[in-house]
Amino acid sequence: MLREDRAAMLRQTGWPLAVALLTCLIGTSPTSASQPADPEAVAEESSEGLVPVRVAGPFEFPWSVGFLPDGWLLVTEKPGRLQLVTPDGRAQAIKGLPPIRTGDQGGLLDVAVDPDFGQNKTVYLSYTHGTLEASTVRILKGRLDLRRRVLKDHTVLFESDPPASANEQLGGRLAVTRDGYLFLSLGDRWEPGRAQDLSDHAGSIIRIHADGSVPSTNPFVSVPGAKPEIWSYGHRNPQGLVADERHGQVWATEHGPQGGDEINLIQAGRNYGWPMVSHGLNYDGSPVGSGGSTAPGVEAPVHVWLPSIAPSGLTIRQEGQATSLWLGALAGQMVVRLGLSEDRALDERRLLEGELGRIRDVRQGPDGFLYVLTDDPEGHLYRLVPAADVARQGIGRGPL
Questions:
Q1: pTM of the model
Q2: What value does the mean pLDDT of the chain take?
Q3: Which candidate, 173, 228, 332, 352, has a CA 20 to 30 Å from the CA of 195?
Q4: pLDDT recorded at residue 391
């Protein structure tokens, strides 16, 4: 059943009957999660049995979602808007944003909500700044006045250096931890050699304190000429980033060239190899660097995709004693679950393949549900609801 037909069914039958019909559809003959979705199915069948239910939208190329108390949400739109979404799905633009360099792959990127937002009202934004000839990636800290719908008291905590003319291959993902650290991923800006240069922020993941200062325990603080904010380097374009505070780990997804997309466990001071080695090929079909996928002193990825799925957005879940990573795929148009054991990927499951389009972000909300954003001129925010809950409780009711 196509999405337009599902929406028509909801309008014609009403929610309770539609839920029952959807549940019957989902409950029939599950297919393998590794197989492509049946275009006539409501959702790809998997052991998770997740149903996408629209929460809000449309948004213009939404990039990230953040969670506020009491069911409120923040959604960034790449053209430079921050939308406040109410629990009933209405959106209103927040005023008071900084000047943002939009176009190409740049614009307003990630939003991270401070763990103590209830007390300090602090949010962090990543975005591109500057001109057509020279742009940078910034982290902005601001205080969100919910009553007036305005972002106040701006402080630029970080700005990448040196600037670049290419407003692409940006990275741009943020992760904030409860002990006061901010991580930001930065791409190579289509200049691969920059990722091996410690005097350059491009192609790195940086770590700073939430006040913008550099931690004295960063690995290159005492290295002459190195950027002290750098935590790891040798990255091509990491567009997913998450801190696993339970295990004290940081994980990232990374775009390869032709093939070679990666999941990496990010460790202090480590070199992740770009452009020395890769599991993928250059776009002209030639080998990357030495032509190998490993090299001395280079961290190997935990998981690799061949061919590319274009991973973007990343979250981590505790499922009893088990841990899993969930990510979106742009080219792959799906949600991917990777089961983990310490620093190893155990299995991969593909969900909703071809159902929603390009998936830009995946996050776990404070309610325990997964949320996904679709990358589209009219993108939407969806809650992924277990089929059993849809049938039993009507959670997340609204058109699919």
A1: 0.86
A2: 87
A3: 332
A4: 62
